Amino acid sequence: MRKRREMGGRLEYHNGFTGKLIFFGLLLLGAVSLLVAVPSGGILSFVDDEGMLIRESPIGAPLSRHPLRADSLSGAVLRESRARRERALPAPPGVRVELQPHSGEPIPLTLHHGALNRRSELQQIQRAINAHLDTPRGAFTVRYQDHRYVLAVAGLLGGFALYGLLWGAPQRRLAVDRVRDRLSLGRRWIWGRRQQDWPLARIDHTTLQVRYRKQGRQRQVRPLLVLRDGTTVPILKDYSGVAEKRHRAMLSDIEQFAGLPFRAPEEG
């Protein structure tokens, strides 16, 4: 926490809040974008010889439209992508339906390759397309949607972002008020805040709670209130291995401002 205000008889410390909201808000926006803007399905429809290929997002929003003619296509084929390494990143094998024009590049029904375990479903789609292209009469529509992985990623990302916005990223506040003779610790979320107060006379001193990790090689501390009845109240929940100097400065400021003694921790 950093000093934010010292005026009159009040001293305030709190950590950042806006940056956390922006970070988790961007994650939530990314999750929504996956649902809205990532093409994961395709709809191919024909009325006699005139056709249209529509690519859509996981929630069914149309993203692009491509007019087609049955007499310009030689048929539909299954195209399999093999696992390979590209820039040291593995690409999983997959399969997709592609429309093969008489000239030019193949036109994929979906931009991505679906899982190999859906080959039988794609074969049925391929045969249905070829049957209509052989005799392009009447209305024909086929739809393929493979959005499981997109939904899984969007769900994980969105769930993490919502948890961070609602619960996981509170702003922590410390305020010392000499006029009201109290010290307050509080947490603030976007939906509200909680605060606990102690009269200054109930607080015996402040200190740093020390713990060692990685077999004693890593030293971590967090600031602590010690009440006159021996109860300890953490000012911050988390320990830190890099903020000890800042914690000491904060507790020293409180000592000078309110007369609450700061006792350095005993070294083990």
Automatic annotation (TrEMBL):
Regions that span the bilayer: 21-47, 149-169
KW Transmembrane (keyword) present: yes
Keywords annotated in UniProt: Membrane, Transmembrane, Transmembrane helix
Protein name, per record: Uncharacterized protein
Upper lineage: Bacteria, Pseudomonadati, Pseudomonadota, Gammaproteobacteria, Chromatiales
